[in-house]
Specification:
The chain is an alpha/beta fold and 248 residues long. The chain has a single domain, classed as TIM Barrel, CATH 3.20.20. It is 44% helix and 15% strand. It contains eleven helices and eight strands. An eight-stranded parallel barrel has the order 1-2-3-4-5-6-7-8, surrounded by six helices. Helix 2 packs across helix 3 and helix 4 packs parallel to helix 5. It is globular. It starts with a helix and ends in a 5-residue tail after the last helix. The structure holds cytidine-5'-monophosphate. Cytidine-5'-monophosphate (C5P) binds next to strand 8 and helix 10.
Amino acid sequence: MTGDRYSKRSGHSNKDRSIERLIVALDVSDPGRARELVEALSPLGIGFKVGLELFLAGGPQFVEELAGRCRIFLDLKFHDIPNTVAAAVRSAASLKVWMLNVHAAGGRKMLAAAREAAEKADHRPILLAVTVLTSMDDQEMAETGCPGSAADRVVRLARLAEECSLDGVVCSPLEISPVKESVPGHFITVTPGIRAAEEDAGDQSRIATPAGAIRAGGDYLVVGRPITRAADPVEAARSILADMGINR
Ligand code: C5P
């Protein structure tokens, strides 16, 4: 039942999930460098994430070009009124991206409008809700008027996203288990905040190793700087895949 629901919602079958479970964040401002990374890393069977930096540098045409070559997660985190978000989802889906996301904090009406727009698209993207940024800790959450733990808020937002029939959430690896336990059916978790045990966390707060995220039941892992800033990005990606139990 769960697999059916997943494929009905997004047009991607469960079989697809055995590949591209590692998504590399192309956080670079030079489209040429992004092309090089895609060329070098694509043979490993991984997906790619385009965020604000590269989107603003390369524009929608560049995203469409990449989406014609590999699976693209367009990470623009829409957060606006329902009508505006629905229009943005339509425009993003027309670029034939694999995944895109909106902020769960935009609320029920906005999430429903986003879902409806995604469902009507010719190329139905996987639609994710961003919960709590992986850079935020409990203290920072309190400062923004959200008392309580990040995990509780992630679960609350994940339930809301599921009620609005989104396909899954972006959360930290520390919240994979609570989300999987609290949200019924197959509901995808996409997790940034992935670091090797010995690595510098940078601005990320809620982190885990690739193996830890997979053990917790994570579906897709997003890794940026540990790969894009490595002396040998292919070797770095291979080592992360190996930690995930995928040998390529
Ligand atoms: O370089 P690093 O591995 O920290 O990259 C993580 C990527 O995931 C960045 O592109 C960041 O924007 C994104 N992201 C995140 N936390 C979220 C959603 C997206 O770190 N909640």
